[in-house]
Design a protein that fits this description.
173 residues, 40% helix, six-stranded mixed beta sheet, alpha/beta, single chain
Length: 173
């Protein structure tokens, strides 16, 4: 079985964590979930500015993804990855592992309307609550990944129809 890297794509409040929580047990093989927010909250104290340790947060995020690609069958990179530039930065950092370990790279795009993202975000508490203005800005900058960025498969989760998740799937080749 080929190792897999799943790169989550979506604005805060779109349901990336929910998707991971409801699907992680359905994967075949060992799974490593790398959450940029969890890394951030482990490094940044309550009284510190949210982005005060961003370089360290990002470096740890990349380090944990690379470790996941070495030790697990499936690694899930959980962050927003909103545009091609952010995704290219990630690919640049992990490309050696992708190529040398023959990793299949998948994007899981969680696409929801802005009002749903805002409503779901409003259910968050403390530092997990993202300012509405930030979500609005992120929402306007979201671009759907393209195969040419380096993905083997792109899954666009469009929500549920009759209690079943509905996806648009774009495959390489």
């Amino acid at each position: 079985m080929r190792k897999q890297l799943w790169i989550m794509v979506g604005v805060p409040g779109s349901g990336k964590n929910y998707w991971i929580d409801t699907h992680k047990d359905s994967f075949n093989g060992s799974v490593k979930i790398v959450s940029r927010d969890e890394i951030r909250f482990s490094l940044v104290k309550e009284d510190e500015e949210y982005f005060s340790k961003e370089k360290e947060v990002y470096n740890n995020f990349i380090k944990e993804i690379c470790e996941g690609l070495c030790k697990y069958d499936i690694t899930i990179a959980n962050a927003t990855h909103l545009n091609a530039g952010a995704r290219a930065k990630l690919f640049k950092q992990v490309s050696w592992y992708i190529n040398s370990c023959d990793v299949e790279v998948n994007a899981m795009v969680i696409k929801r309307d802005l009002n749903t993202c805002l409503a779901q975000n409003n259910q968050r508490k403390g530092r997990e609550l993202v300012p509405e203005s930030a979500i609005r800005n992120m929402y306007s900058s979201l671009t759907i990944p393209a195969i040419e960025e380096g993905f083997d498969n792109i899954y666009i989760n469009k929500g549920k129809i009759n209690d079943k998740s509905h996806y648009e799937v774009i495959k390489k080749g």
